[in-house]
Design brief:
Helix 1 packs parallel to helix 2. 44% of the residues lie in helices and 31% in strands. By secondary structure, it is an alpha/beta fold. The chain has a single domain, classed as 2-Layer Sandwich (Transcription Regulator spoIIAA). The chain has four helices and five strands; from the N terminus they run ββαβαβαβα. Belongs to the anti-sigma-factor antagonist family. It holds the Pfam family STAS.
């Protein structure tokens, strides 16, 4: 299975929706597209929606952590939302939720990040 990436800007927040599999075959594409969107447009924060992400491996974790570091260096925050159980388990075991909040849905994540702005 391949990966689809959809990006949208909402009041200074880059919303990234991933569908499919984020693995060593697709991680470079996601990294490049997210980096380009972060550099090209003014976005203070990132919301990563994983509702339709079926699988993720360690290279996917690397992409997420790298974008987290990038946005944090710019003074922003990153949040994850709509995480399905298998991906949630991987993110939890990796310790990602200790540094990045997870929300039930995009609306909750956007509300929290806009309060922070």
């Amino acid at each position: 299975m391949n990966l689809q990436i959809e990006m949208e800007h909402h009041r200074g927040v880059l919303i990234v929706r991933l569908s499919g599999e984020l693995d060593h075959h697709t991680s470079d594409m996601v990294r490049m597209q997210m980096d380009e969107a972060i550099q090209r447009r003014q976005c203070e924060h990132i919301v990563l929606s994983l509702k339709n992400l079926q699988f993720m491996d360690s290279s996917g974790l690397g992409v997420i952590l790298g974008r987290y570091k990038l946005i944090k260096q710019k003074g922003g925050k990153m949040a994850v939302c709509d995480v399905n159980p298998p991906v949630h388990r991987l993110l939890d075991m990796s310790g990602l939720f200790k540094i990045m909040p997870v929300y039930e849905n995009e609306g909750n994540a956007l509300t929290e990040l806009e309060v922070v702005s």
